[in-house]
Design goal:
Belongs to the class-I aminoacyl-tRNA synthetase family. TyrS type 1 subfamily. The chain is built from 19 helices and 13 strands. It is of the alpha/beta class. The protein has a six-stranded mixed β-sheet with strand order 1-6-5-2-3-4, sandwiched between helices. β2 (35-40), α3 (52-63) and β3 form a beta-alpha-beta unit. It is globular and about 75 Å long.
Length: 416
């Protein structure tokens, strides 16, 4: 059982899956503040709930007086992480990478405090392009390549799975592990980072970085991974019928984010409260043990607390109040997510299946038709039975058209 406050609470919350030397890391944390990092691939301009475990680990680390580093993969993004992927990622331009890094930074600032806000203990924002872009290939081979065994790299589970599927692995991607290992050593040299954290799929890369730092610099550094989180029904965390659950409000509304957590399966409530909120562990366990109608109240607490971390307390409470008005009072005027639609489209009349498409509740006309045929489509709280039923400006209520998919997905269409 660890004694340092960070590891003690991380273990109690279920944040630890593997650690290279838990006892030695525990001693280092008891001796004083350490610096630890998590790497983020800029493959999109926002992080999503699937990244939340690693972010919450950084948040908890900072809470207990240690210094986090958020490492942007501006350099490694030009290669792409092959871990547990069926095929190579599409290569991105420098402009796209820069745009995505800016969005990811915005996501992270909701969870942790950076050094520009708190110079003494704020998190460091680093970008591995700063050193990787300057590397000489020959120097890299001489300095780093000599310490890597091809047979060991082929034993990494992420590589083995890719080769077993006969999808092929390019030499470009094969270098990813070497560059990630270089990152660990560089962050240790520049900022004294002694711990790399990440998802369980990064274990092989993390261990390789530890080994490189030990071999070349004689330094003891550590690795800690968080578990892969799936729901009780086996769905990977962060995935939904609507796609990724993004952390930026520009990509997923605060109300939809709140609803994502409100829809948590009963069996997952206690676990998710411990992983994704700041509530005390004992309170999370108490709430997770509730049954019947009471578990729904626990889900609302989970939704509000998780949303408050990501979007702020005021926005979270507004989302909770909107949900109460919509689902408990049947209100159509609450602050539901809105989209603008050219007024002439409704002036001319829009068939029901197109209404659901334009509202973003169906990805295609066929999907919208199936939704309506299955009885799951409603407009202004009335079930639609005819997929070709036409809606016009005369159907507006208080200037909007309320469009619903099932009982929990609602959008207001506002003609402009």
């Amino acid at each position: 059982m660890p004694k340092s406050p960070f590891l003690l609470e991380a273990q109690a919350r279920g944040l630890i899956f593997q650690c290279t030397d838990l006892d030695a890391l525990d001693e280092a944390m008891l001796a004083g503040s350490i610096t630890a990092y998590v790497g983020f691939d800029p493959t999109a301009d926002s992080l999503h709930v699937g990244n939340a475990m690693s972010i919450m680990a950084l948040r908890l680390l900072q809470k207990h007086g240690h210094r986090p580093i958020a490492l942007m993969g501006g350099g490694t993004a030009k290669i792409g992480d092959p871990s547990f992927r069926d095929e190579a990622r599409s290569l991105m331009t420098n402009d796209t990478i820069a745009h995505n890094i800016a969005g990811i930074e915005q996501s992270l600032r909701q969870f942790i405090t950076f050094s520009d806000e708190d110079p003494s203990s704020g998190a460091i924002l680093a970008n591995n392009a700063e050193w990787l872009d300057k590397l000489s290939y020959i120097n890299l081979l001489q300095d780093v390549g000599v310490h890597f065994s091809i047979s060991r790299m082929l034993s990494f589970e992420s590589v083995k799975q890719r080769l077993d599927r006969e999808q092929g692995l390019t030499f470009l991607e094969f270098n990813y592990s070497i560059l990630q290992s270089y990152d660990f050593r560089e962050l240790n040299r520049r900022h004294g980072a002694v711990l790399q954290m990440g998802g369980s799929d990064q274990w092989g890369n993390i261990v390789a970085g530890i080994d490189l730092t030990r071999r070349t610099d004689g330094k003891q550094v550590f690795g800690l991974t968080t578990p892969l989180v799936t729901t009780s029904s086996g769905v990977k965390m962060g995935k939904s019928a609507q796609g990724a659950t993004w952390l930026r409000a520009e990509k997923r509304s605060v109300f939809d984010y709140w609803q994502f957590w409100r829809n948590t399966e009963d069996a997952d409530v206690g676990r998710f409260l411990k992983l994704f909120t700041d509530l005390p562990v004992e309170e999370c366990e108490r709430l997770g043990a509730l049954e019947g109608a009471d578990i729904n109240e626990a889900k609302k607490i989970l939704a509000t607390e998780a949303t408050a971390i990501c979007h702020g307390r005021t926005a979270a409470e507004e989302a909770a109040e909107t949900a109460r008005k919509v689902f408990e009072q049947g209100s159509t005027t609450a602050a539901l997510p809105e989209i603008d639609l050219p007024a002439n489209m409704l002036a001319e009349g829009l068939p029901a299946f197109r209404v659901f498409q334009e509202a973003g509740l169906a990805a295609s006309g066929g999907e919208a038709r199936r939704l309506i045929r299955g009885g799951g489509g409603r407009v202004n709280d009335v079930v639609i039975s005819d997929e070709n039923q036409t809606f016009t400006l005369e159907d507006l209520r208080e200037g909007t058209l309320k469009v619903s998919s099932g009982k929990k997905k609602h959008i207001l269409i506002r003609p402009v």
